[in-house]
Amino acid sequence: MAQAKPQNKILTANRLRNGETVYYTAAGEWSPYVSEARIATTAEDADALAKIGAAAYAANTVIDVAVIDVNPGAGAKPSHIREVIRATGPTVRVDLNKSVAPPQR
Amino acid sequence: MYIYDQFDHAITKERVAEFSQQVSRRLTGELSEEQFRPLRLMNGLYLQLHAYMLRVAIPYGTLSSKQLHKLADIAKKYDRDYAHFTTRQNIQYNWIKLDQVPDLLAELASVEMHANQTSGNCIRNVTADQFAGVAGDEIEDPRIISEVIRQWSTFHPEFSFLPRKFKIAVTGAPKDRAAIQYHDIGIHIVKNDAGETGYAIYVGGGMGRTPVVAPLIKPFVARADLLSYLEACLRVYNLHGRRDNIYKARIKILVRDLGPAEYARQVEEMWPMTRAAGVDVPAGEVARIAAFFAPPAYDKILEPVAAFTAAKAKYSAFARWVQTNVHPHKVPGYGAVTISLKPIGGIPGDASSAQMHAIADMADTYSLGEVRVTHVQNLVLPNVKQADLFAVWQRLGEIGFAEGNVGLITDIIACPGLDYCSLANARSIPIAQRLSQKFADLDRQHNIGPLQIKISGCINACGHHHAGHIGILGVDKAGVELYQLTLGGAGDETASIGQLLGPGFTSEDIVGAVDKLVNTYLDLREKPSETFLEAYRRVGPAPFKESLYGRR
Amino acid sequence: MAVVDRNGPIADAWTRLADEEAVSKGASVIVSFARLKNEHNSLFSTAGAVGVEIPGDVNLDELEPFLPRLSVIVVRMATMRDGRAFSIGRLLRERYSYGADMRAVGDFIPDQILFLLRCGFTSFEVKDNFPIDSLKRSVAAYTAWYQRASDRATTVAELRQGANPNGGTS
Ligand code: HEM
Ligand code: SF4
């Protein structure tokens, strides 16, 4: 179906050094928590994220860089089940799952 | 078991040093990811959804108790206290950090283990029959030439950048317990008319998106010529295998396109040259390796063993477990115990550090220090005295691995699927868990009889679904996990490829659909001893299709 | 571009000729395989030394007649994953007994040079920033080999016969 608004997007990757799944934040850092991801709401924003991702890959900070779809609304919630699982962990070992948000400090 | 000498130790240490500096060069950026990727894959290091995954080789599926203890220690120290045994007799760790891999490899090397060539477009870890050396029907212990092949293929200068991965399996008995015809090269140990032992060579099998049962390329290669023949097989492939399309790059496509006869002819043409090059190892070296696999010192035991008979009579659950999980041993008074890593509702093939330590201890106490890994994701204690079987069963109960389901419907193979794997379309493990709960009732399992369910989370077919009596393939339909069913696959000496039944089922419906297939079989079988596979081969897919989709 | 051998950078005496470029008398030239096939008579009589660049899908039987008079064969690896070069090297050395310089060119990395050497290559055309330290480390990475290759290095099996005639373990 044609979408009136462009799909919201976030930038994700895995850290080169330890493989951890991370998300690019509004503060310009890579966070393990998907809820901290910077959300692109326009096509231009999404392009900007892709460029940031390519640069981080070239700088050997991260690998497997991807700009992925998230649901509309605040607080990044990945649209596809693959990315939902990637954000939290294996559904068959919930004891090992991580939260979508950082622990309260 | 094979024991490293100074040369094996040196090469393994040198490999750790080499890969360690490759890791450092990656971290400093001297190597780009494109350059490093083939190097890390050749060391079994993948990137999955959540972290790196390291695949450690268990050559031809044989482990010492000391090695298993080390694998358990590594799971605790470098991973999250568990690991996954795979269908290729490897073990996988799911939460590995790249910068810790050098230390991990050094620990592995200390127990004569490595992750060499467990991935990448090279000759992979050689697999073999899990009952090697203990099965009564064996012609020759397949581990001898498996070790010869392991050494020959390790850091092979010519065959480390093949068009695609290359898997070799060896089976030593008429009964194929290594699914050799689903391998790039399958080696069947045979005797010729003159009574000499040699090798029948099958080339060009495989799973993936184009499943192929390998054709016989050469009925008999003499022992002394095996490596030069393999080298000729590989060279023809390396030169002429397709490199333009990753889905057509396996040797099965080359053999299919040339035709088995033409491929065999080209190998014959190449063979004199590899022979003249001195590729074959001297007989003395084969004898040296063979000596490591000489039978251990077994006790002389008279059957029947009274304590064993009594325990079976007293505990019917134990008797049943023996029926499915204990394989006859060539030595009287012994049995080979398959430890099912498929507890009801569990994750097929997973074991915690504590469970691995416990099994290693049992191997020391009851199995002459040896453990095997099967291509069905189970473990084997190959040398257990019948008099000890009851104690083994009890101890297995304490660690949650006493399920008496080997070969039955809950002995399910499942790949990691979308819970871990970055290539997956759908989850595999939860389907396996729910199926195993659905069919938990052991009476029903025994009534159903031998039935293999194999589940893959995508068309790469790591879960062998093509070879499942019932195969389940996860697909992604517009973001929803769907599961397709195939019937009639087999991975043994009657190898066949399962046929797709029809449209896929949702995660909610797939368990019910399998139940319908099973009930259909129970209704139409001619007698209880007619297995699911036999019945399917007799009647074909129609009644099964009808049970799922109605009459069309 | 630079040329290295197993020890590091070496001087490159070769000129690469495009198919339409003329050959100077006495020059050391590398030409395409097509040109070699078409113009071998004039090439061998004019040039001082002749080399040829061959692609990965070459038919070596077609190259065979020229082998005794070739001074270098350049094998192109389309990418670092194009492993045909390794088999071509072994065939040239072991089946056709080619004895002169054999050069790899393409996107290979230092870690692959070790295997290329074992498959009969002797020189390598590389980018100017090719990491020579890594090259040197790579070629010295192993002290023993399990299998026979074109370099005829002693195999572990042979060392075992010498070191451990009774097949004992250390
Ligand atoms: C989770 C990471 C894994 C990845 C990325 C992966 C990747 C692949 C790919 C791409 C193929 C298809 C190869 C082809 O068609 O040419 C394949 C095949 C296969 N994999 Fe995996 N795999 C993984 C895990 C496993 C596991 C856990 C097992 C064992 C349980 C396994 C066993 C196999 C087998 C038996 C095949 C079929 C071999 C054949 O095609 O002949 N893999 N894998
Ligand atoms: S079959 Fe697909 S989903 Fe399963 S492990 Fe292999 S690549 Fe991953």
Q: Can you count the helices of chain B?
A: 18
What class would the helix/strand composition of chain C place it in?
alpha/beta
Beta fraction of the residues of chain B? 15-25%
What's the CATH C level of the largest domain in chain B?
Alpha Beta
Shape of chain C: globular
Radius of gyration of chain C: 18 Å
User: Which architecture of the largest domain in chain B per CATH?
Assistant: 2-Layer Sandwich
Low-confidence stretches of chain B: none
The CATH top-level class label of chain C? Alpha Beta
Helix and strand run of chain C: EEEEHEHEHEHEHH
Kindly state the number of beta strands of chain C: 8
SSE topology:
The complex is a heterotrimer of chains A (105), B (552) and C (170).
Chain A (H helix, E strand, L loop, with lengths): L7 E8 L5 E4 L5 E2 L11 H16 L3 E9 L10 H8 L17
Antiparallel strand pairs in A: 1-2, 1-4, 2-3
Chain B lengths: L5 H23 L4 H9 L3 E3 L4 E6 L4 E3 H14 L3 E4 L4 E7 L4 H10 L16 E2 L13 H12 L14 E4 L13 E7 L5 E7 L12 E7 L3 H15 L10 H8 L1 H17 L6 H10 L13 H9 L1 H10 E3 L5 E6 L10 E3 H14 L3 E4 L5 E7 L3 H10 L14 E2 L14 H10 L3 H7 L4 E4 L13 E8 L2 E8 L11 E2 L4 E2 H18 L7 H8 L2 H8 L3
Parallel strand pairs in B: 6-7, 7-8, 16-17, 17-18
Antiparallel strand pairs in B: 1-2, 2-5, 3-14, 4-5, 4-13, 8-9, 9-10, 11-12, 12-15, 14-15, 18-19, 19-20, 19-21
Helix pairs in contact in B: 1-2, 1-4, 3-12, 5-9, 6-8, 7-8, 10-11, 14-16, 16-18
Chain C lengths: L1 E4 L2 E3 L4 E2 L11 E5 H14 L2 E6 L5 H4 L8 E6 L6 H12 L5 E6 L3 H9 L4 E4 L5 H8 L16 H8 L7
Parallel strand pairs in C: 3-4, 4-5, 5-6, 6-7, 7-8
Antiparallel strand pairs in C: 1-2, 1-8
Bound molecules: protoporphyrin IX containing FE (HEM) and iron/sulfur cluster.
